[in-house]
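About this split. The held-out portion is used to measure sequence recovery: a designer receives only the structure tokens and must propose an amino acid at every position. Recovery is the fraction of positions where the proposal matches the reference. Here is one held-out target exactly as it appears in the evaluation file.
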């Protein structure tokens, strides 16, 4: 397997390094992200990553915990569903609205990460990464309004800005366009099939049967950079 294939499917972290807060990002993202963070600080925000690089194994664990009901699986209204009552096809679609398949998460690439305004949190205060927290006037709304007009300058965009019928809109999820666009163009259905074939993923048979449709709807179906 080439290093590129390992990066695209989350089987290495050799392309990443630790950014402030302990989350890993791609080595080539450190500089533009530092510039974005510094500009945000001047505007009064503490831009912090709450989820950066994620490996194949980590994404596999999240997937399997959702399928087995150890982690909540929300429906379209955000209410947790009883996974044992869902037909496999329904469950797969529900999980994919909020979680990527292992081997298909943009978090594997180190180019993508979720950001919040740390200065808005009291010590020990929890948040859920739900759309309501990112609306105008909400907990992280001001930072993201600032990002709306400033992130392009530094090369960042939101691949899940609008609802394209695949992944649910995620205002918190930013991507470094120059690298991520290149990785997206090189991500293939063949690599993903290979990665999942040898994994211990739950609902593997059902997922593999419809992988071409899943790949089109949830992996490559993203908003393009505005720049
Ligand atoms: Zn994300």
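Reference sequence for scoring:
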């Amino acid at each position: 397997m080439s290093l590129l294939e390992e990066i695209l499917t989350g089987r290495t972290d050799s392309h990443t390094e630790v950014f402030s807060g302990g989350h890993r990002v791609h080595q080539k993202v450190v500089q533009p992200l530092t510039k974005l963070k510094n500009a945000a600080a001047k505007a009064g925000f503490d831009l912090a990553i709450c989820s950066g690089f994620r490996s194949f194994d980590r994404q596999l664990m999240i997937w399997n915990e959702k399928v087995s009901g150890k982690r909540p699986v929300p429906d379209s209204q955000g209410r947790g569903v009883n996974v044992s009552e869902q037909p496999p096809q329904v469950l797969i679609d529900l999980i994919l609205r909020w979680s990527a398949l292992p081997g298909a998460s943009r978090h594997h690439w180190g180019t993508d990460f979720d950001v919040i305004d740390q200065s808005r949190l009291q010590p020990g205060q929890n948040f859920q990464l739900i759309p309501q927290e990112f609306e105008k006037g909400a907990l992280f709304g001001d930072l993201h309004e600032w990002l709306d007009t400033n992130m392009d300058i530094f090369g960042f965009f939101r691949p899940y800005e609008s609802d394209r019928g695949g992944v649910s809109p995620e205002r918190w999820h930013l991507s470094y366009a120059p690298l991520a666009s290149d990785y997206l163009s090189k991500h293939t259905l063949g690599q993903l099939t290979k990665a999942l074939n040898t994994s211990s993923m739950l609902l593997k048979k059902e997922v593999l049967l419809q992988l071409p449709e899943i790949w089109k709807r949830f992996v490559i179906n993203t908003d393009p950079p505005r720049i």
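Annotator remark: The two ends are 32 Å apart (CA to CA).
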